[in-house]
Amino acid sequence: MCGIVGGIAQRNVVPILLEGLKRLEYRGYDSAGMAVIHNHEIYRKRELGKVKGLEALLQADPISGHIGIAHTRWATHGKPSTQNAHPHICRNKVTVVHNGIIENHEQLRSQQLERGYEFTSQTDTEVIVHQIYDALESTNDFVGAVKQAVAKLEGAYALGILSTGHPDTLVACRKGSPLVIGVGIGEYFIASDVAALLPVTQRFIFLEDGDIAAIGINDLVIYDKDDNIVSRPIKDSQLTAEAAEKGEYRHYMLKEIYEQPFAISQTLEGRFINNRLQENAFGFNAPDIFDNTKAILILACGTSYHAGLVARYWLEELARVPCSIEVASEFRYRNPVLAPDTLVVTISQSGETADTLAALQEAKKLGAKHSLTICNVPESSLVRESDLVLMTRAGPEIGVASTKAFTTQLVTLMLLVIAMGRRFQLSDIMEAKLTSELFALPGKIEKVLRLDNEIKVLSEQFADKEHALFLGRGTHYPIAMEGALKLKEISYIHAEAYPAGELKHGPLALIDADMPVITVAPNNSLLEKLKSNMQEVSARGGQLIVFMDETLSSSPDSNVQILKIPQVDNEISPIVYTVPLQLLSYHVAVLKGTDVDQPRNLAKSVTVE
Ligand code: AGP
């Protein structure tokens, strides 16, 4: 949600901020804007739509400055428009970019209206810039004014702030929304995500909740939430600027689908010695925590929630570990009961999903003693707030539709199944089987990727459809859910997933020739049941598209199209069957001409409620 970038340097920061915005665009792409201070004046450019619109504006009418802030927006308060685009300005003196939501903005707005402030947007952000201006009326201390102003804010924010009265200082602060400082040589930058700054630095300071930073060209002072001056460590990022680039691929999503074999190898790398999972991969105290765990509760959203659903089947079926799972946004508000000695497991690509973070905090309030996060972003909020961490190591995922993050989440969850299973009912034989299946996985996925052309041909049948049903059973039901989410997310085709056995309890009424039914049909103990469910569809004139194990025979039927998937072991098969569904959605979206990497209305990192 919304991307922030800012900088202070000897050189003109405009091209750096523009490149940063392009790299942050996955966080929001409703509008983009930039402001610099030059000769004690604010120069601002804003444009509706993507960063390329802002770029064109800057080419036509350039601005330059040694200090600046910029923003790409995902609208929450106020529609996407130039007026609502950031940076916002108060009386030509203070300008602000904001990520997050100010919950008491209405109350602050009416107070400020009474004090004569004018509003030019419908955003919650505008109250921040007025509040800071107001504080600066009674002090010349820029940081002090920001401290006073943010003390009045309720909600979540990451802010970049400039003041014409203090043209050599960039102030940055965060509470509930991420913000990093990029440390260059004789220059500093700020951003919502390290990816924005990789072309200029690989050294980062991760601000903590409540931190306020006063950034000069050669000096940096950070105040913590209790107003103490603190020193935060500088960390070297292992990421390269190229890792977040599209390369030869037409879309990030396709690149990320194809990266899965490598990403999975990375996820497994170094976590086994002599084919034995090393539990300290989860953290040095993991064995003790696992010893004392009697049940697992998984909290996540979206695709990450689907990964958790698969894990619940695995944990209970393979390891006999009691496991429950809940969508984070529901858990946080329903006052649930937590069983004693429950390990709370959060799953998140970004590590910044507001609902998941809040659900973890809620679980802690309810007495959860230990938490584990499965996450793709080091130093993210979930990583910092969890006792144990298992990184997915998928590398930067830029496409809004999650692909490699999901399959690597499943791999790490299988590692959890092994670790917990040792304490419950996973036999040594099964542990060895799961381990060898995991190591065979990259090769299996390579084989599925070779079906890309066939899947592309299959996708042609969808481009004119408005609805689709996805069916699966057991661990493949969440895979069907994930397939449906991918399709609706990037092609805007309405898609629903059902456990195949549930079809006759209602959704069968929807079946006709215009409702394609995509079925995930691996060769497992539920196959015969699934075949009966497919018959139910076929008998009613429904069009079936079946992803089926290559070893199975199929009788010709004009209503049924079959795509044969390389034979795969039962336990690991949900990971393999995910890939053709990703490719299917991708090709449908390309045919429909939608914006694959930045689908309408969505953003990658959902840092608001
Ligand atoms: C998946 O394609 C989505 N973009 C979305 O459902 C995502 O998985 C969800 O917002 C959770 O994000 P997280 O993994 O970063 O917590």
From TrEMBL:
Tell me, what is an example of a GO biological process annotation in this record? carbohydrate metabolic process
Top-tier EC class: transferase
Enumerate the UniProt keywords alphabetically.
Answer: Aminotransferase, Cytoplasm, Glutamine amidotransferase, Repeat, Transferase
Q: Extract the GO molecular function terms from the UniProt entry.
A: carbohydrate derivative binding; glutamine-fructose-6-phosphate transaminase (isomerizing) activity
Cellular component, GO, one term: cytosol
| Active site annotation, chain numbering | C2, K604
Among InterPro entries, the record links this protein to:
GATase_2_dom, GFAT, GFAT_N, GlmS/AgaS_SIS, GlmS/FrlB_SIS, Ntn_hydrolases_N, SIS_dom, SIS_dom_sf
SIS domain: which residues? 286-426, 458-599
Q: Does the keyword Transcription apply?
A: no
Q: Does the keyword Cytoplasm apply?
A: yes
Cross-referenced NCBIfam families, in alphabetical order?
A: glmS (TIGR01135), PRK00331.1 (NF001484)
Assembly:
Homodimer.
Q: What does the record give as the function of this protein? A: Catalyzes the first step in hexosamine metabolism, converting fructose-6P into glucosamine-6P using glutamine as a nitrogen source.
UniProt-recorded name of the protein: Glutamine--fructose-6-phosphate aminotransferase [isomerizing]
Give the organism the record lists: Methyloglobulus morosus KoM1
